[in-house]
Request: fold
Amino acid sequence: MSQPRLLFVLSADFGEYVTASLFSRGQDFDSHFAVPRALLPYAGSGRSGFTAYSELGEVEELARAVRPDVVVLASGYMFPVNRIARPEALAGFIERLQQQGCALATTDPWLRIGILDPESRLEIHSVKRKGVDPEATARMRELQRFLERVYADTAHLFAVPLEGDRRWLPFFNPAFAGSAPKLEPAAGESEDRWLFVLSKEDYVFLSGFESETFMETLRRRIGAVLSVARNRVTFIGPPELRALLADFSRGDARFRFVPFCDFDTFESEIRRARVAVYWNTLSSSLLYCLYYRVPLIFFGKGHQARVHPGLYEHVVARVYCGRGPVLFDAASPMEADADALVERLRLKSWLDAIAADYSASPQPAEVVQRLRNLHGSE
Reply:
């Protein structure tokens, strides 16, 4: 039997690649990735299996050439938001893919909260208004309702153990971590590497809504971590932060600022980290930390929790399996000795307990078969 052919179509960002990578790597699949042209440089130079596109017509041509058994739109909800396709055009695109004989799936950044919690409401916040933008919120809710109809019969892949109807397909890939390339030794391996990760969206919210205190508390926190001689800090974040953190870059060789990086470099930074620090409890790359058992702490719930009231409680229940993540006030004192912090908060056992829940989910090969069966039953 030939390998299943999978085509992953990314709409925008690293998080979508994380889900696709977790699903496909180490599996007996023939995987191909379609990425927006702006994202192609982050795939790594000379890497095979990646094709750039500008509009969905090019993806249809690629699908005719690749002849995939399964097409995964990651995330299907974001194509109109990222101005890749108008909602009506997206509906036609999905129909034509199905006519080609492809089993179709999408990933959902909102974890189907609208189905699980019908009272939840999406709200678009404006930095300029310092609060909710009623007009933008109304437009987004209308789009959300339209897309719910578009994807009503489409299967959903979840990299977390979220159960639902037969089209909700959680997965866990036990082959992922073991299939990672061997890490080359790096300078300072005997030291404790702290990885700070701040997304563009969270930076915009934090600098916009908390501009008076955000940079001050950020500098104080980095300084506290570097006050422990064996600590090193790598900060991955938007380029705008480079100048604001220049004092650390010039004054201490143990601090390194990375204005985003390619997919593989980002994953390797997580693998080397002793502690990972995030501002977003729903960042997809957190799953890399779970798979590699890298202890996690958080300085904020994240921009998604701001725009979708009630989302944080939903995340705790479904993503963290009822075991809330460790949230710190970024301005408050925190243990900067990595071993002491991990031990005091029992972060390793916390990760192990969550991973046990995740590992009960079906493996990708089984999910692919279920997708093909679903497509055959339509």
Observations:
- The chain has 17 helices and 14 strands.
